[in-house]
Automatic annotation (TrEMBL):
One BP term from GO: proteolysis
InterPro entries documented for this protein: Aspartic_peptidase_A1, Pepsin-like_plant, PEPTIDASE_A1, Peptidase_aspartic_dom_sf, TAXi_C, TAXi_N
Family: Belongs to the peptidase A1 family.
Organism: Triticum aestivum (Wheat)
Keywords: Aspartyl protease, Disulfide bond, Glycoprotein, Hydrolase, Protease, Signal
Pfam families according to UniProt: TAXi_C (PF14541), TAXi_N (PF14543)
Disulfide bonds: 357-397
PROSITE patterns: PEPTIDASE_A1
Record domain Peptidase A1: where: 86-438
PANTHER family attached to this UniProt entry: ASPARTYL PROTEASES, OS02G0473200 PROTEIN
Protein name listed in UniProt: Peptidase A1 domain-containing protein
Active site positions, chain numbering: 104, 320
Amino acid sequence: MGPPRGASRATLALLLLLALSAALAPGRAAATGVFEVRRKFPRHAGGDKHLAGLREHDARRHGRSLAAAVDLPLGGNGLPTETGLYFTQIGIGTPAKSYYVQVDTGSDILWVNCVSCDTCPRKSGLGIELTLYDPSGSSSGTGVTCGQEFCVATHGGVLPSCVPAAPCQYSISYGDGSSTTGFFVTDFLQYNQVSGNSQTSLANTSITFGCGAKIGGDLGSSSQALDGILGFGQSNSSMLSQLAAAGKVRKVFAHCLDTINGGGIFAIGDVVQPKVSTTPLVPGMPHYNVNLEAIDVGGVKLQLPTNIFGIEESKGTIIDSGTTLAYLPGVVYNAIMSKVFAQYGDMPLKNDQDFQCFRYSGSVDDGFPIITFHFEGGLPLNIHPHDYLFQNGELYCMGFQTGGLQTKDGKDMVLLGDLAFSNRLVLYDLENQVIGWTDYNCSSSIKIKDDKTGSIYTVNAHDISSGWRFQWHKPLFVLLVTALCSYTMF
């Protein structure tokens, strides 16, 4: 069961008070601006709806007046023959220590492995130094009890087993069978705030995150080990939502994942260049669901059941940076494969670690068709052969997979991971509930607006990866890092 998508009125009020306190604290730069004195909301109109609307309006206005841009340096590579994931570096605690965490739009909370974890890896094949978080080693770290507002809001109520001073625990299971359990703590998060063209300055704010006491499955594998996962989901418990509630950022971010050179761009803030066309997010969904309307292969529309992409049964299409591949219902996968290989009827396909692979000596972009996904509002996603076919030695393998991904009621779903969105700028605008993308050179830079100053700054691409080379030996399910997860509290 995932965390509640909304929050109680008390929670919203608390978040607003925290944001206002942060703005008025001594030593902080005051935001400038002109505010109308005229009331947008009459004092006595609307009852509870009026109060909720008033708080929402104030939170949005406050966020606009204070929001700054954030630059998260990226490492890793989305190719299955490389790491199959992307990660960033953040600082936690006082004094701050560095942690490498996977960036994942398919989950919500930030968590890092704790010093009490016996099953957590101590070394990583990614060429990075792992660090275990020690709450007692940070002068600003405090535990979160099960009766505190964050725990109550995240769980959707006070747990029946909650007793005074008991820690607020969590448990997350991911789609590949891996898991993490632990407890929540609050400490300072240190991050890079954009301060000029290609320049950042250190900023910090208090944030609540998971302290992992036990991990299971491939999260403990030393070949791809990281310190944790940084969820960029929509829930109030995510780092993005907490930063927005504190008036630090707006709930708008973008990533550009580079499969050519590795790393890329990941920034929080309003992207003003390049321009991005968008499609609406499906409301009320725990993930970034969009309405897929049709698929073309080589310009020919696939004839598929009319309800195959329906959103009325909690299906739709999920956009997830924590997943490497693309996953399709069987009928969709078979139709695509038939069209892709239509002119190669006698080409033998080899099953290699659950991938459909083949030998091909020419340019795949010249020999295979473009696959186009059409989304609500006329937004296309053109997936070129070099995107959906990846090279592994002398073979090319299909980056689309079928089966294994279903909703709780057993319905197949469409999930598009990094391969479908690599070398594109993808924009998530949660304030306007839209998502969009455009083809882009992810080794270059973007322009982003700092709402706090009104300035427009350049944010460059990064690659914080070391000189390692990942050896592809893991089976398919390892690549499904965080496609679907269930989130529970004890």
